[in-house]
Each structure stands twice: as structure tokens, then as C-alpha cells.
């Protein structure tokens, strides 16, 4: 007697023991499911490489608090082009003031330059202009504040000193704008945002206006506000933001809709994006779940036509999912976008295993009037071998994903393999043992439990099932040729499949129109993040690009320091003016400079380059920021790190 028959005999002869053991195992394994957490973070998608390792080193030893910030972009748009009008600017300042007064938002704002907006820039310029006028009239002692008359282009150079002055309070800015008429504000805007402006305020404001804005005019269809928040996590690692931060970003959206309903708003922030990604996963399950259950119910009704067998099928599927999620909980794995496919995969596989076991059981029961226990023994011993082989090959196939350098792909392969093995255990042992006990109990109460296997009688279904057999017998060459042609076409199509990854691919799109007819309990939410992101990318300047360079080795030798100083004094982006269009610094030029830097510093042991991209930094009005930081834990002779910030301004390099 081979192993399959011995195992089948043990399961059927000791069915109650099998049920007890697997029930206890279900309680233990399933308890881990309560520890499974959802995550929309892409930290696990980062591969394992030298550059990633060195980036982690930089974040740990050089980063400090500069990586613990995030931004919210609030775009105010109006097709009529009045976002620079007096009323629009005042509403924007009132909204900005409400953000400061809102405790949920205010507690997350950074200390230095928490909010930058076109309205506040115009408001500051208006206050400074009024102070300059009062000084000229002798109302303010000279030296009280250093400002300039932004209403006159010839004196605009003096406004560079305004950065050193204290920023006027928002209520003072509002009061000043309210005291001015529309013509005065229009004149201030046109001078402040002129093409040849040298005012720091004007340069920052131009970066926050739509690409379609014509410098020197008083109308624009869109403007941006940048809100800088403190975070409890390192945002460069892709970690999920805390509820404190995401709640603040939701409050930013709600306040924008309530305080400035006259305009449309496009809001983008990583916390707000996380909320929509989480909601999209929940909405997907809310729709896919009932549809999957209906499909399972329809399949089992057609195959079994028996209430008990249908119930056992659903129960087995539930146990498979419980074991899988329990394993995830005990293993500390999170449920992310990639894991959505796992439950659907396991449901389909579980139905397949269930139908194979039960149909074979019914066939064995119909032959020679076998008893319930004997029929199940033959079913498990014959079908179990095939199911075990299928399970082994499929699980091994998914386990090959552990060779990937991406933790998310590794976890997907492991969880899928565990779920597949769980399906074999549940439908190869637990459900057969449970069916033996339940069928025996029902027969003792006089219920007939012998059922006919579907497709075994002379029915139309049996005729359909035999079509393939008849085709193979009558025209085997035609069947083979058809399969070869289809396979060749599929192979060719497979070569056209591209491989790419973008976080944007995981952001939910607007739901299709047919979902509007769903009941309220199933209707998905409205998703705006992806649309808003596309709008911002299409109509505003690209976020600043930042590259971190870690140099290890003899970083304090005179020649090395000389080369570093030479590199600092020769930035790759020399600001030049363009008269007709806006261009941003291309990445290729940035990397060419880094390659040149690599060849210049010949005495160094190693140089690592880690390109990163921030969402949006508060504009500083400078084209190049060169910063050298030294670790307190490690002497400067061991390592040095500097960041190169290339700011995509309205001026082409």
C-alpha cells in the first residue's frame, strides 16, 4: 500500500481526530489574522542594491530632520482667469489664516516657511510697498524695515533685502489688500510678476503660477499654495505617513472647499493619496467580494445541487483565507496593493480542489454501493495524488519570487505559496473528514446522501464535455496545429509586454460610469488624487530634483577638497533668461554633471549616487544649493555627504 492510500485511510478512519487537530490549528493560525495591517507604502517595493544600502546610511547618519517633512499642494483654478483678482487673493489669505487657526493642521506645520502662496506673496508686497510709501512720507523712521517700492520696476532690486525683514501677519496682509482698489492690486501684480522681475518675492510667485501665465499680466487661470508639514517618519524611504499627518491633509481639503467655494481646487499630498489608496482597496473588495461570492455560489449550485456540499465549499474557502491571513499576521506581513490578487487566486483554486474531491467521492459512492467512509477513502487516495502534485508545482512556482530583490514581490510569492498549501490541507483532509461525519449523521436520521456526479449521465452537459475528445479523435492534426498557432501568437504577444513601475499606477482612477448604478453600500468613492496630480504636472513646474552623493574614502586630502570646491563653484545650471517659454532642467544634464564629478574626484575610494525626488519644496529663489554635512558618529576622514538640489525654475539652464 503506497503513501497516498495510507494517508487516505488515516484521514477517513480517524476523521474526528483530523477534525479536532485541524480545528485547533485553525484557531492558532487564524488568530494571527487580527494582526494584519493594510499598507499603501511603497517602501517594500524598493530593491536591495548598493545604492539603496548607501541611501539608508545617508538617511541614518546625515539626514537629520530634513527628511521628516512632507508637502501638500493646493491649486486654485478658475477658467475665467481671475485667481489674481482682489477678491480671490483675499479669499486665499482667509483660507491660509483658517489653516493656521485649525488645530489639526497647525500642529503639523513646520516652524520656518510653513505656507507659501501667491496670495501671501502679493499681500507681503502690498504691505512692504505701503511701508515704503509711509517712509518716504516720513511716517516710519528709516531703518525700521528694509523694503522697496515694488510698484516701480526701477527700484525692484531693493526688494532682495525684504527677505531679511519679518513677514507681515496675515491679518495685516488682508487689511492692506482690502484697503486697495482693484486697479492698484492689478498694477502691483503685473510689476511683481513681470518677466524681468528681480524681486525675490516675484521670483517665488512666478514658480507658483500656472505655466500658462503670461508674465506681466494681471490674470491667471491657476495658482499654487505649498504647505510644509512635519512628519514622524522619514519620507524619503517611502514610509506611510501617520494619521496625524493624513488627518491634517484631509482638513486642508475640507477647509479649501468650505472657505473658497467660488473656485475649483486640485489638492495633492502623500497623506491624502494614502487615504484614497486605502479607500480604493476597500471599495475594490466591496465590489469584488459580492461578485466573487455570486460566482462561487453559481458554480457550486451547478456542480453540487446540494445545500450541505455548497456550505462545506464556502466553509473551506473561508478556512483557506483565514489560514493565509493568519500566516501573514504571525509573519508580520502587511496587506498592500500587490496582495489583492491573492484572495481571488485562492478562491478559484479552492473551488477547483473542492469540486475534484466531491465529484470523485460521488463517483466512487455510485460504484458498487460503497459506504460513505470507503468512497471518501478512494476519492482522497486517487485525486489526492494529483492535487498534491499540482500544489507542489504551483507553490514552487510562486516561491521562485523569493529570488526577487523586491520585498513586496518576495512576500507575494511566499503568501501565495502558503495559501496554496493551505487549500490542499483544508480540501484534502479537513473537508473530507468533516463531510464523512456530517453525511453519516444525516443518514442515521434517514436522509439519503448518495448524489450523482455532474456530467456523468447522458445529458447535454456530458455531450459538451465530450466535444474535445471527439475532436481529438477525428482530427488530431487540426487540433495540434490550432494549439501550435495559438501558442506561437501568444508567445509573440508576450515579447511585446513591457516592464515598468510607477507609484502612479497604483493610484485609483475615477470609477467607471456603471458603478453609479450600484447601491450606496457598494458604490465606490470619488477619487481625485490621480487627476489632480496629472493636472499639477501638466500645468505647473516640475518638483525640484535632488540627488544625494555619498563619498567614502580620503575625503579630507587637499586635492579632494580642492576638487569639491571646484565642483561647487561650477554648478551645472547657470540661470539664463528665456523670453518665450518655460523650460525645466533635464535629468540627463544633471546626471552628466554627476558623471563628470565622479571622474574628477579620483582619489576617493567610492562614490555613490542616489537620485531622489521630493514632492514640492518651498521655493527659495536659488538655482543651486550645495550643502556638505558631516556625521557626528563618523570622523570626516571616513565619509562625507552633500546634496545637490536642482530647482526647476522658470528660467532655463
TrEMBL record:
Gene3D superfamilies registered for this protein in UniProt: Multidrug efflux transporter AcrB transmembrane domain (1.20.1640.10)
Region (Disordered): 129-171
Residue ranges crossing the lipid bilayer per the database entry: 285-304, 311-332, 338-359, 380-400, 412-434, 475-494
Domain SSD span(s) in chain numbering: 313-437
Membrane topology: Multi-pass membrane protein
Domain of life per record: Archaea
Cell compartment(s), UniProt: Cell membrane
Biased composition (Polar residues): 156-166
UniProt keyword list: Cell membrane, Membrane, Transmembrane, Transmembrane helix
One cellular-component annotation, GO: plasma membrane
Pfam families according to UniProt: MMPL
Signal sequence segment: none
PANTHER family membership: MEMBRANE PROTEIN MJ1562-RELATED (PTHR33406), MEMBRANE PROTEIN YDFJ (PTHR33406:SF13)
Annotated protein name in UniProt: RND family transporter
Amino acid at each position: 500500500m503506497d503513501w497516498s492510500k495510507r494517508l487516505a485511510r488515516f484521514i477517513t478512519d480517524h476523521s474526528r481526530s483530523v477534525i479536532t487537530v485541524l480545528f485547533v490549528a485553525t484557531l492558532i493560525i487564524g488568530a494571527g489574522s487580527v494582526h494584519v495591517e493594510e499598507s499603501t507604502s511603497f517602501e517594500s517595493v524598493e530593491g536591495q542594491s548598493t545604492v539603496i544600502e548607501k541611501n539608508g546610511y545617508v538617511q541614518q547618519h546625515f539626514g537629520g530632520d530634513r527628511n521628516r517633512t512632507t508637502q501638500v499642494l493646493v491649486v486654485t483654478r478658475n477658467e475665467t482667469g481671475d485667481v489674481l483678482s482682489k477678491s480671490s487673493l483675499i479669499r486665499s489669505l482667509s483660507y491660509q489664516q483658517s489653516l493656521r487657526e485649525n488645530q489639526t493642521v497647525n500642529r503639523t506645520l513646520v516652524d520656518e516657511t510653513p505656507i507659501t502662496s501667491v496670495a501671501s506673496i502679493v499681500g507681503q508686497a502690498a504691505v512692504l510697498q505701503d511701508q515704503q510709501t509711509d517712509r518716504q512720507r516720513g511716517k516710519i523712521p528709516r531703518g525700521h524695515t528694509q523694503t522697496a517700492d515694488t510698484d516701480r520696476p526701477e527700484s525692484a532690486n531693493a526688494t532682495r533685502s525684504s527677505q531679511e525683514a519679518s513677514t507681515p501677519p496675515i491679518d495685516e496682509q488682508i487689511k492692506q489688500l482690502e484697503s486697495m482698489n482693484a486697479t492698484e492690486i492689478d498694477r502691483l501684480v503685473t510689476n511683481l510678476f513681470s518677466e524681468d522681475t528681480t524681486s525675490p518675492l516675484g521670483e517665488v510667485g512666478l514658480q507658483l503660477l500656472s505655466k500658462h501665465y503670461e508674465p506681466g499680466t494681471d490674470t491667471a487661470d491657476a495658482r499654487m499654495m505649498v504647505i510644509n508639514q512635519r512628519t514622524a517618519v522619514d519620507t524619503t524611504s517611502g514610509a506611510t505617513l501617520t494619521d496625524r499627518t493624513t488627518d491634517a491633509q484631509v482638513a486642508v481639503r475640507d477647509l479649501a472647499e468650505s472657505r473658497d467655494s467660488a473656485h475649483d481646487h486640485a489638492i495633492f499630498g502623500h497623506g491624502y493619496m494614502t487615504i484614497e489608496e486605502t479607500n480604493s482597496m476597500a471599495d475594490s473588495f466591496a465590489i469584488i467580494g459580492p461578485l466573487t461570492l455570486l460566482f462561487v455560489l453559481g458554480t457550486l449550485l451547478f456542480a453540487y445541487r446540494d445545500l450541505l456540499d455548497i456550505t462545506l465549499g464556502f466553509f473551506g474557502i473561508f478556512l483557506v483565507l483565514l489560514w493565509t491571513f493568519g500566516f501573514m499576521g504571525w509573519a508580520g506581513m502587511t496587506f498592500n496593493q500587490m496582495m489583492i490578487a491573492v484572495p481571488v487566486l485562492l478562491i478559484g483554486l479552492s473551488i477547483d480542489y473542492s469540486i475534484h474531491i466531491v465529484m470523485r467521492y460521488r463517483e466512487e459512492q455510485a460504484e458498487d454501493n460503497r459506504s460513505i467512509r470507503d468512497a471518501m477513502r478512494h476519492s482522497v487516495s486517487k485525486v489526492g495524488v494529483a492535487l498534491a502534485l499540482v500544489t507542489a508545482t504551483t507553490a514552487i512556482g510562486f516561491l521562485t519570487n523569493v529570488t526577487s530583490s523586491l520585498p513586496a514581490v518576495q512576500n507575494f510569492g511566499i503568501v501565495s505559496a502558503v495559501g496554496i498549501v493551505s487549500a490542499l490541507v483544508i480540501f484534502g483532509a479537513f473537508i473530507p473528514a468533516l463531510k464523512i461525519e456530517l453525511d453519516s449523521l444525516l443518514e442515521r436520521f434517514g436522509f439519503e446522501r448518495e448524489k450523482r456526479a455532474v456530467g456523468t449521465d447522458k445529458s447535454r452537459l456530458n455531450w459538451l464535455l465530450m466535444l474535445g475528445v471527439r475532436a481529438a479523435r477525428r482530427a488530431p492534426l487540426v487540433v495540434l496545429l490550432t494549439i501550435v498557432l495559438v501558442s506561437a501568437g501568444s508567445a509573440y504577444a508576450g515579447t511585446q509586454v513591457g516592464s515598468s513601475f510607477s507609484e502612479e499606477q497604483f493610484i485609483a482612477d475615477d470609477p467607471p460610469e456603471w458603478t453609479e448604478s450600484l447601491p450606496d453600500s457598494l458604490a465606490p468613492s470619488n477619487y481625485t488624487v490621480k487627476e489632480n496630480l496629472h493636472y499639477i504636472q501638466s500645468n505647473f513646474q516640475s518638483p525640484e530634483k535632488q540627488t544625494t552623493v555619498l563619498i567614502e574614502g580620503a575625503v579630507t586630502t587637499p586635492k579632494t577638497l580642492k576638487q569639491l570646491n571646484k565642483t561647487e563653484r561650477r554648478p551645472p545650471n547657470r540661470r539664463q533668461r528665456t523670453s518665450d517659454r518655460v523650460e525645466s532642467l533635464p535629468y540627463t544634464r544633471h546626471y552628466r554633471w554627476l558623471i563628470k564629478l565622479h571622474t574628477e574626484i579620483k582619489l576617493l575610494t567610492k562614490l555613490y549616487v542616489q537620485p531622489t525626488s521630493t514632492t514640492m519644496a518651498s521655493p527659495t529663489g536659488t538655482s543651486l544649493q550645495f550643502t556638505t554635512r558631516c556625521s557626528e558618529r563618523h570622523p570626516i576622514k571616513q565619509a562625507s555627504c552633500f546634496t545637490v538640489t536642482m530647482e526647476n525654475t522658470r528660467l532655463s539652464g
